[in-house]
Amino acid sequence: MKFYEWRWWQRIFKKEEEKKKSETPENIEAIQDFLNEIPQSVKTIKELLKSLKELEYERQVATPSLARVNLEAQADIIEKLIDQYEFFQDDADINGIRVKRIAHEYLFQAKKIGLNKLVKEKKRDLKWRGW
Fold this sequence. Notes:
Order of helices and strands: HHHHH
Distance between the termini: 42 Å
Helix content: over 70%
Mean pLDDT: 85
Number of strands: 0
């Protein structure tokens, strides 16, 4: 057995683990910020979709030489649309994880206080259990 595995050695030099602080307030603030930014993101995505729709109508009636230019313009808009939608989706996914952490922390605190019946009930609920 190596000396650092000896029990007395570990008692002397083992680092004390820090207690994990609740991140719930920070998660709630981050979710609120995301929800405040949604209208701006949705507005940008709607504008891109509107432009794309107009270009698609123009392409359907355009001559083959103009259709090429139209499709190149559509490619630029689609690229911007994909980027914006990807950012929006990533933010929504991250905030979904934050909500899950808040729910998990809630169950932990409820169990700690002694609300075992409530915790048991919530763990059986599909909304809570799916996480």
